[in-house]
Automatic annotation (TrEMBL):
Entry GO CC: mitochondrion
Protein family membership: Belongs to the AB hydrolase superfamily.
Catalytic reaction annotation: a 1,2-diacyl-sn-glycerol + H2O = a 2-acylglycerol + a fatty acid + H(+); 1-octadecanoyl-2-(5Z,8Z,11Z,14Z-eicosatetraenoyl)-sn-glycerol + H2O = 2-(5Z,8Z,11Z,14Z-eicosatetraenoyl)-glycerol + octadecanoate + H(+); 1,2-didecanoylglycerol + H2O = decanoylglycerol + decanoate + H(+); a 1,3-diacyl-sn-glycerol + H2O = a 1-acyl-sn-glycerol + a fatty acid + H(+)
Origin species: Glossina austeni
Keyword terms of this UniProt record: Hydrolase
Lineage: Eukaryota, Metazoa, Ecdysozoa, Arthropoda, Hexapoda
Spans traversing the lipid bilayer: none
Protein EC: 3.1.1.116
Name of this protein: sn-1-specific diacylglycerol lipase ABHD11
Domain AB hydrolase-1: 50-287
EC class (word): hydrolase
Length: 302
C-alpha cells in the first residue's frame, strides 16, 4: 500500500530568497519550490531519514517513479522524487547550477520539515547531491551517486549543447498533429546528436498546447546558457571540506561518465565511499534496475 502524494507547481511561480539553514552561509541564491512525489509504505518509519532522488539532464521525477516505488516497498523510509528547476513541473529560473539546485533541496527540506535526509542523484542530479553533501554535511545521512564523477565529465558533453541548440531552433507548424510533430523534431535532433537513445529521451519532453503551439517542458534557454558550468564542477566544489559520511557510487561499465582511474581522487573528496560497476550504460538505473535497487536498499539499511 502506497501513499503517492503529488504536488505540482506552476511554471510562472515566483522565486523565493533562500532562507533558514542556507542563509547561515551568507548565500543570496534564490530558490524555487520543486515539484515532488512521495512514495511510502504503510509501515514507513518517520524516524528514518527520507530519501530524496534527483534525475539527470533532460529527465524528470517521472523517470524515477518505478525505482521510487520499488525502493519504498523494500524499505521503511519515505522516498521523494523531485523535478529539478527548469525540468518537469518545477518552476523555471535563469540560474541552473549545482549550487542553486542544492539550495532547492534545502528549501524542500524546510517545506517538508526534514532535518536530515539520504540523497540519490543521477548525472546532473548526482553532481547536485554531491555538492549538497559537501556544502551542508549536517543535513545528509548517506548518499548514492549514479554514474557521474566529481572529477571530470566526458568530452561528449558538447553534444548536450548541440542538442539544446537544436531544441531552441526547431519550429513545428501548429497544424501538425503530435505524431507528425514528433517526427519532425526527431529528424532535426538526430542531425545534432546521432544517438537514438538520447533523442528518444529528449522527445519525452515535447508538448503541444491547447492552441496548437509546440513547446518543451524544459527551460531550454536556461539549460543552454548554463551548459558551460557543467565543465567547471571542480571550481564549484573548490574549498569545501571532504564529506565524511557514507557515499556509494553506482556506475555503468559501458558509460564514459566515470573514469576508474579517478577513484583515488574521488576518495579524497568522499573518504567514506564505495563504488560498484554494473554492466550498464549511463542510465544505470534503467539498464540494471533490479541490481541498482538491491545495492541502494542494502547500502541504506546498513
Amino acid at each position: 500500500m502506497f501513499c503517492n502524494r503529488i504536488k505540482h507547481l506552476s511554471i510562472g511561480q515566483r522565486l523565493y530568497p533562500i532562507k533558514n539553514h542556507v542563509a547561515a552561509y551568507g548565500s543570496n541564491i534564490q530558490t524555487i519550490d520543486m515539484s515532488y512525489d512521495v512514495f511510502e509504505s504503510k509501515n514507513a518509519d518517520n524516524n528514518l531519514s527520507p530519501l530524496i532522488i534527483m534525475h539527470g539532464l533532460f529527465g524528470s521525477k517521472q523517470n524515477w517513479r518505478g525505482v521510487g516505488r520499488a525502493l519504498a516497498s523494500k524499505m521503511n523510509r519515505k522516498v521523494i522524487t523531485v523535478d529539478a528547476r527548469n525540468h518537469g513541473n518545477s518552476p523555471h529560473a535563469d540560474d541552473h547550477g549545482s549550487k542553486s539546485m542544492a539550495a532547492d533541496i534545502v528549501q524542500l527540506m524546510h517545506r517538508l520539515n526534514f532535518r536530515k535526509v539520504c540523497v540519490l542523484g543521477h548525472s546532473m542530479g548526482g553532481r547536485t547531491m554531491m555538492y549538497f553533501a559537501l556544502k551542508y554535511p549536517d543535513m545528509v545521512d548517506k548518499g548514492i551517486i549514479a554514474d557521474i564523477s566529481p572529477i571530470s565529465i566526458p568530452g561528449d558533453i558538447s553534444a548536450m549543447s548541440k542538442i539544446l541548440l537544436a531544441m531552441k531552433n526547431i519550429n513545428i507548424p501548429q497544424d501538425l498533429p503530435m505524431a507528425a510533430g514528433r517526427q519532425l523534431a526527431n529528424a532535426e535532433l538526430i542531425k545534432a546528436v546521432p544517438s537514438k537513445e538520447t533523442v528518444d529521451f529528449v522527445l519525452l519532453n515535447l508538448r503541444k498546447a491547447d492552441d496548437g503551439k509546440y513547446y518543451w517542458i524544459h527551460n531550454v534557454d536556461a539549460l543552454y546558457n548554463n551548459m558551460s558550468a557543467f565543465t567547471k564542477y571542480s571550481d564549484t566544489i573548490k574549498g569545501l571540506p571532504p564529506f565524511k559520511g557514507p557515499i556509494m557510487f553506482i556506475c555503468g561499465k559501458n558509460s564514459p561518465y566515470v573514469d576508474p582511474n579517478h577513484w583515488p581522487q574521488i576518495q579524497n573528496i568522499f573518504p567514506n565511499s564505495e563504488i560498484h560497476w554494473l554492466d550498464a550504460g549511463h542510465l544505470v538505473h534503467f539498464d540494471q534496475a533490479a541490481k541498482f535497487i538491491e545495492l541502494t536498499v542494502g547500502f541504506l539499511q546498513k
